[in-house]
Structure formats: structure tokens, C-alpha cells
Amino acid sequence: ADTWGVAYQVQQEQLRHSLEYLNLREGVLGGYVCKMVTFHPQGLQACDSILALAYIATPQNPLYLGPAETEHIAGQILCCSGHSGHNLDYLLRLAQFMRSACPGVEDEHLFSIEAATRAIASAPDDRQA
């Protein structure tokens, strides 16, 4: 599967601080595993790939939901937040990023989760009747 995103080049003098920050935010607080991956910048030849760090969720992470139905993922997003903010904000920003930075990519999984989350969030609350 393809994963889309942005790679940032960190200057040598900022490297230590950047890695400490990312390891705290993504590794310690988020439970993600740091892996070296091959990044293929869009528009360049396949031979122009670069090595990059990526933080990846694994089943060993206690916060990892794993494979689930779209509506279950949406419900989880709506009721959860982390140290860096509410999961709904992250989802909406991620979907907007994909639309603006990768307009030719139709990420059906992401956009179906976004649609389900919006539908659940805008549904009338039957408990108030």
C-alpha cells in the first residue's frame, strides 16, 4: 500500500532537538515505533528516493485499534483525544491535506472515515428527546 505524506529535511544544528521532540511526542506519548523508510518524492524518478524516519502504529501499541469497520473507527475518533489534541481535528486536517497536497489521489479509506465521522457528529442525539 502507498502512504502519502511530507518529508522534512532537518538542519544538522536542529537534528538533536527535533529527534528528542518527535521521540517524546510520537514514541513515548503516542506509542508509535520509529522506522527508517524509503521515501519517493512525487515527481522524481524512482532512483531519487531518500531515507526518512516514519512513526508507525503497531498492534503492540495499547492505543492501536487495528482493523475495524469504518463506523467503528469514526466512533473511536469522535470520542478520543491525545496529548496533541482531539482525534477529530487530526482526521479533518489529514483529509484536507490529502485534498490539497495530493489532488490526484483518492484515498477511499481516509475519505470514508471522514464521511462517517461527519455523519455521526451531525446526527441528532436521540438521548435528548
UniProtKB/TrEMBL annotation:
Leading EC class: lyase
Single GO MF annotation: glutathione specific gamma-glutamylcyclotransferase activity
UniProt keyword annotation of Transmembrane present: no
One CC-aspect GO term: cytoplasm
A Pfam cross-reference name: ChaC
EC number: 4.3.2.7
GO biological process, one term: glutathione catabolic process
Catalytic activities: glutathione = L-cysteinylglycine + 5-oxo-L-proline
Swiss-Prot/TrEMBL keywords: Lyase
Keyword Lyase: yes
Its biological purpose: Catalyzes the cleavage of glutathione into 5-oxo-L-proline and a Cys-Gly dipeptide. Acts specifically on glutathione, but not on other gamma-glutamyl peptides.
Entry similarity comment: Belongs to the gamma-glutamylcyclotransferase family. ChaC subfamily.
Protein known as: Gamma-glutamylcyclotransferase
The organism's taxonomic lineage, starting at the top: Eukaryota, Metazoa, Chordata, Craniata, Vertebrata
